Amino acid sequence: MFSFFKKKKDIDIEKEELPLEIKENTIQEIKAENEQKKGFFSKALEKTFETIKTVVPQKKEKISFDDIQELLIEADMEYEIIEKAMDGLPDEITRKQLRHRLVMLFEHAPKVDLSNLPKPFVRLIIGVNGAGKTTTIAKLANISKKDGKSVILGAGDTFRAAAIEQLSTWAAKLDVPIIKTKQGHDASAVAFDTISAAIARNIDNVIIDTAGRLQTQTNLNNELKKIVKVCEKAMTGAPHQKLMILDGTQGNTAIAQAKAFNEMVGIDGIIVTKLDGTAKGGALFSISNQLELPIFYVGVGEKQDDLIAFSPDDFVDSLLDEIYTPEK
Ligand SMILES: Nc1nc2c(ncn2[C@@H]2O[C@H](COP(=O)(O)OP(=O)(O)OP(=O)(O)O)[C@@H](O)[C@H]2O)c(=O)[nH]1
């Protein structure tokens, strides 16, 4: 799923006592999968690429310090982060030098071990209105199903009737169960019932929606803290992941939001949506670096398949492929 797992898989297969033909086929498959993933990033980053190509229209072997600085600003990377990344680099920068610095920006984020997950594995989805929570829940449920895991949804946005309907429509489309209540009812009760249903039905994954809220809305935020506590009552250790959904078109402004929510309930990871609709792809560097949180996925469209597992290596390579000639 993540590149660091993939790399491990690569190495294991190399060492494995398998017939050569199977070994080569498997390595080819992994390579093809990696290329496809890079392709997805390239598609999602089209708008960002258009912008950086105005600074570096031709691919080169070395690019000047000033041009790199300018293109990172154009891609909405925060100035402070640019300074950090480029400190001490020479006037003419090679791909290898820049790659190393850019990948390092993601290293503050803790690595997450996704083996031996508890059952059910409970994820609570948090974000402001319109960030893309509902659509992302559908996409996550779709990934679960594709991975052969059972999943149940909790319609915890009881604030808006339309949100319950929207999630129910996705549940029907994906053919996954959903626990819901009427608008205005207690969202924590929905969370409790969803986790209890998952335990009773031996379901692998629980994904719980919450109402869109601003970090300044005290009542809604107290409600969020209550939902977190009630999840723990339903199952010790739950929610196992509190995921913040950030609208990628907002670029760096989304960081302040995430910081406030992180202080409020503690965020475990980020999903950045609508990367396809923005030239601000560079904000991913600032988001991960400033928040010291991993980006798990990025949303690259409105359909159920438009969510890709985020890997810093693939992301950085997609960017560099646009401006550097292949390394000799
Ligand atoms: N292009 C694009 N659109 C997206 C993506 N994710 C979500 N959207 C669209 O963004 C809009 C808002 O998404 P929702 O999932 O309804 O957002 P929400 O956070 O649940 O919103 P509220 O229910 O208002 O809190 C919808 O039109 C989605 O189709 C994405 O990755 N790319």
Which descriptors apply to this entry?
two-stranded antiparallel ribbon; AAA+_ATPase; Recoverin, domain 1; cell membrane; Rossmann fold; binds guanosine-5'-triphosphate; 3 domains; 10 strands; eight-stranded mixed sheet; GTPase activity; 328 residues; SRP54_N_sf; alpha/beta
Description:
Residues 294-307 form the SRP54-type proteins GTP-binding domain. This protein has 328 residues and is of the alpha/beta class. The chain folds into three domains: 3-44; 46-108 and 318-323, Orthogonal Bundle (Recoverin, domain 1), CATH 1.10.238; 121-310, 3-Layer(aba) Sandwich (Rossmann fold), CATH 3.40.50. The chain is built from 13 helices and ten strands. It has helices spanning 3-15, 20-44, 46-55, 65-74, 79-86, 95-104, 133-146, 161-174, 187-201, 218-234, 253-265, 283-291, 312-323; strands at 62-64, 92-94, 121-126, 151-154, 178-179, 205-208, 241-247, 269-273, 295-299, 307-309. The strands form two sheets. It has an eight-stranded mixed sheet, sandwiched between helices. Strands 1-2 form a two-stranded antiparallel ribbon. Helix 6 (95-104) runs antiparallel to helix 13 (312-323) and helix 11 (253-265) packs parallel to helix 12 (283-291). The longest helix has 25 residues, at 20-44. The chain is globular. Mean pLDDT is 86; it is low at 1-13. The site of guanosine-5'-triphosphate has 19 residues, from helix 7.
